[in-house]
Amino acid sequence: MKPLFAYFTDVHGNLDALQAVIDDATRMGISRFISGGDMIGIGPFTNEVLERLCNLPSIRMVTGNHDEAILALKYGLPHPKSHSHARQHHQWIANHLTDTNANTLSTLPRELTFREDGFNFLITHYPFKQGKKESPIAEDPFLPIISEPDSNAMKELFKDSLTYDFIGFGHHHILHDFKVKQTHIVNPGSLGCNKVAEARYAIVYKTDEQELSIEYKSLPYDQTRLFKAYKELEVPDGPFLMKAFHS
After folding, report:
1. pLDDT, tens digit, for every residue of 209-234?
2. Contact 83, 65 (CB under 8 A)
3. Backbone angles phi and psi of 74, in degrees to 5
4. Which of 8, 146, 218, 239 is the most buried (most CB within 10 A)?
């Protein structure tokens, strides 16, 4: 099989989890990476994560709701009311986000589409509400998360995108592995937020039979530095975030 790229999503400022994935993929000879959004928010390593991603030999990224909500505060734009519970935390991250990294985030698209090795790919954080694809984050453009996903729900959610061979997305932090006709609908689960100390990602292969194959990986990593940073940096809502989003 030929590896095409490593796909991950929802790093959420967790540098050590990200590094575990990069190290594993690199050991397998993979140098191309694609991120499905929410690189920052929740975890404390905002600039470190963005700089590590931008220093990869090949990286493509889309923005997620946390990325955009933090950028809104950084640039003095309206923050989404649906994220009001996270506003203090987002403001703290925006205050620490460097101008250079903010500019990098602000230039990223919400969607990636490309053709490679005979396959069509779509990368998006989550589908958009009707007519909201270009709306600012303050207008909550993303559809509500489907809490109990199944094949029928995914078929309906991505009904306008089923001409693609691969749809990579995120937002919902659990694993999604569905196939509707020829379309692989893939969310490996959040890389940086997991109830166990494991970082998740997927490797996308082209098989000898000229088909796509997806391998899901879950890698243990040391959370010591993560928890230490939450405490030493006095991250707003740190105790809640550690309990809700980490082991």
Report:
1. 999 999 999 999 999 999 999 999 99
2. yes
3. -60, -40
4. 8
C-alpha pair distances (Å), 32 with each of 7, 53, 59, 206: 9, 11, 6, 14
Beta bridge partners of 204: 5, 214
Whether the pTM exceeds 0.90: the reply is yes
Q: In whole angstroms, give the CA distance from residue 163 to residue 167.
A: 10
CB atoms within 10 A of CB 51: 15
C-alpha torsion 233→234→239→242, nearest 10: -20
Q: With beta carbons less than 8 A apart as the criterion, state whether 138 and 80 touch.
A: yes
Q: Point out which residues pair with 33 in neighbouring strands.
A: 6, 59
DSSP letter, residue 175? -
CA distances from residue 152 to 124, 146, 162 in whole angstroms, order as listed:
19, 11, 13
- The residues, ordered by sequence, that sit 6+ positions from 196 with a Cβ below 8 Å of its Cβ are 247
